[in-house]
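User: I'm writing a tutorial on reading structure tokens. Could you give me a worked example: one chain, its sequence, then its tokens, then a sentence or two explaining what the tokens reveal?
Assistant: Sure. Here is the example chain.
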Amino acid sequence: MTSEEQLTRWVAGESVHLGTPGGEDGECCPDFSCCRPELKQPEDVRRAFAAASNDKREHFLSVFLAAAIGKMQEERGKPFKSIYIAGSKPGDES
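And here are its predicted structure tokens:
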């Protein structure tokens, strides 16, 4: 499967990991929902990501990454803190 096919399936609601899930050779879908289903973005966000320019996609990816890091903090019993990823602005939402 290509990255483009993965993107098409993700937008349609099927989160597919390229390669071995959790493996070094793999590639998560943009919101990491192939490995962390609780991070799956709503359909309108997935569609907006797919239609976005590369610059806007980078912004989406920074927001998705911040959400994943925040979830890991919570799982480790640490209170959620605001996370800033370069390329996003504090309080940005996709």
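What the tokens reveal: The chain has a mean pLDDT of 85. Helices lie at 3-11, 43-51, 54-75.
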